[in-house]
């Protein structure tokens, strides 16, 4: 499912116009993004949680040439699936 399909499904399920459903989806995604930018954790019960993970710098290899390269430290968003969703998907 992509973003436009999510918007259509929300509009149909809740009897909203496409514009209103798009605004709701956009607001939710922007709120999650803003929280992550502020190093906050976002938890959606029964679904999972989002947080920013810090990764230290390390030495890696260029897969084409085999040369050793320095990879700088970085921050990346990380999603951890919730127990309920994990169990539902696995059944």
Question: What descriptive keywords fit this protein?
Answer:
single chain; 91 residues; alpha+beta; HU Protein, Chain A; 2 domains; two-stranded antiparallel sheet; 3 helices; 5 strands
What can you tell me about this protein's structure?
The protein is of the alpha+beta class and 91 residues long. It contains three helices and five strands. A hairpin with a 6-residue loop joins strand 3 and strand 4. The longest helix is centred in the first third of the chain and has 20 residues. The relative contact order is 0.12.
CATH architecture of the largest domain: Irregular
For the biggest β-sheet, the strand order reads 1-2-5
Low-confidence segments, given as residue ranges, are none
How would you sum up the major sheet? Answer: 3 strands, antiparallel
- Rg from Cα: 19 Å
Say what the CATH topology of the largest domain is. HU Protein, Chain A
- State the share of residues found in helices, binned by percent: 40-55%
Instruction: Write down the domain tally.
Output: 2
Beta-strand percentage? 25-35%
Strand segment tally: 5
């Amino acid at each position: 499912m992509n973003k436009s399909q999510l918007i259509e499904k929300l509009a149909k399920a809740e009897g909203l116009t496409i514009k209103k459903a798009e605004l709701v989806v956009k607001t939710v995604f922007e709120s999650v993004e803003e929280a992550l930018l502020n190093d906050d954790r976002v938890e959606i019960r029964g679904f999972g949680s989002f947080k920013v993970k810090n990764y230290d710098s390390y030495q890696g290899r260029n897969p084409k040439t085999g040369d050793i390269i320095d990879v700088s430290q970085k921050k990346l968003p990380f999603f951890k699936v919730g127990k309920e969703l994990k169990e539902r998907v696995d059944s």
